[in-house]
Amino acid sequence: MFGSAFSITDGSGVFISSLTLTIIVSAIVIVGIVLVAVIITLAVLLSSCINRSTTTVEEKTYSGLCASYHINAELNNVQDSVFPAVCEEYMLNYLHGGQYLKDIEVSVDLAQSYLRTLQLQHDQKNAVILDIDETALSSVLHSENIIRRNKGSTNRDWNTWLNDTMITPIVPVLALYQELLAANWTIIFISERAENKFDLTVKSLQKYGYENWTSLILRSSDDSGDTVQSYKLSKRKEIENQGYQIMAVLGDQWSDIAEPAPFTKTFKLPNPFYRVI
Ligand SMILES: *[C@@H]1O[C@H](CO)[C@@H](O)[C@H](O)[C@H]1NC(C)=O
Ligand SMILES: *[C@@H]1O[C@H](CO)[C@@H](O)[C@H](O)[C@H]1NC(C)=O
Ligand SMILES: *[C@@H]1O[C@H](CO)[C@@H](O)[C@H](O)[C@H]1NC(C)=O
């Protein structure tokens, strides 16, 4: 007889030593533990997978909704309605994440390509009209403040945002400006900023390298009864009456570019943050 006195026998009469039994029981316990661990792991993975796919669906829904609000803001359809609060992150990401700058670059590239095709004639007076805010210069903190309005941030007066500590240049427009200047284009700024902001505006423009423009037109209190659109149109007409052909107008607002002359091409820069009518 083999084995110890502690050998047992199963129903079939096979003898199993206590060592073998220990090994088998241990193996069963280990397999059991491994199985439980695998099941728990799978359950955790599955539930995180479900959570993730739920989030993805929600994110997609929101980003689809916010992309629609975004384009409708550009199209001027949002009017004075408030952007859905759920789109705040989307809009901040648009402003700071690179796409806003990309959209500006594409508009400016299109203007640049067009203007490069034109041969300036020395006997002709050709001009390009530029808007200032959100075109030549950016008041990015103001745009951010508008996006965050649902969080009850302070709604400061527009004039406080004109402080040049809060203004930065829109680099693609500055590059185009300098190219046009070097090619002897007449460059005229028309802005809805008030005339009493003239010195501040000159300072902000020059600080960042906008220099030697032909004319800087700001709004006098005389035409403050007009809409911005009719004010800008009447200033363009005055320029044309001085013998200029306005070849291009660049601005972030529809009111900057509305009712162009037949030979004037317009380039709309993005601004889904606010509208000026
Ligand atoms: C601009 O802001 C700075 C810093 O807050 C302030 O010292 C300065 O007086 C402001 N300038 C104007 C013109 O409001
Ligand atoms: C621009 O005008 C200046 C002065 O009239 C002239 O010397 C220069 O050659 C012109 N530049 C171009 C690119 O036409
Ligand atoms: C503006 O004109 C001044 C004087 O002619 C010149 O020194 C300066 O370089 C010009 N600036 C630019 C950006 O062309």
UniProtKB/TrEMBL annotation:
Keywords for this protein: Glycoprotein, Membrane, Signal, Transmembrane, Transmembrane helix
Pfam family, one: Acid_phosphat_B
InterPro entries: Acid_phosphat_B-like, APS1/VSP, HAD-like_sf, HAD_sf
SUPFAM superfamilies registered for this protein in UniProt: HAD-like
Transmembrane segments: 20-46
Family statement drawn from the similarity comment of this UniProt entry: Belongs to the APS1/VSP family.
This protein's name: Acid phosphatase
